[in-house]
């Protein structure tokens, strides 16, 4: 137990002190918790997240936690039981429309943190949120959101067998979420999440 605690805190220290990517802005943001059987994976923090010290802390978070509230999971309960990871842990800066997409090199630089969290927690369920997060789990690089959102998938990730249920990014710039197809797929995905045995065990038993 003592070794696991020190392993976890060493990971946090490495994450918080990481400055590998010169184009990233601000300091790393994390939603790590010491014990979890569920991991969510976002894309990267937005411009406000560092100020609040947690992922999905601003407008996209309101949408995301509004989705979870539909299936009976409140924000603070989610944050206390789910290890909230991300593909990249620092704010990438702004692009012409929305936030800049992290480069492949930045994704690679940050991948050690997600790998550690998967190996450490050995989750039963992963919830990737947004296309960049889904890209880390899917083998087919050419897909549409409607091909995956609403489905449940299984794979081995970093030596751990996991189920994964994707969600689209809850950004207001993601117009797909407001289409009839998008709304139906999101509802299907939320139902799949609600009915997953690990969700039931974590939140409802």
Automatic annotation (TrEMBL):
One Gene Ontology biological process: DNA repair
Keywords carried by this UniProt record: 4Fe-4S, DNA damage, DNA repair, Hydrolase, Iron, Iron-sulfur, Metal-binding
GO molecular function: 4 iron, 4 sulfur cluster binding; deaminated base DNA N-glycosylase activity; metal ion binding
Domain of life: Bacteria
Entries under SUPFAM superfamilies matching the protein: Uracil-DNA glycosylase-like
Listed CDD domains: UDG_like
InterPro entries to which the protein is assigned, alphabetical: UDG_Type-4/5, Uracil-DNA_glycosylase-like, Uracil-DNA_glycosylase-like_sf
Signal sequence extent: none
Coiled coil: none
Name of the protein: Uracil-DNA glycosylase
Residue span, Uracil-DNA glycosylase-like domain: 28-190
Pfam families per record: UDG
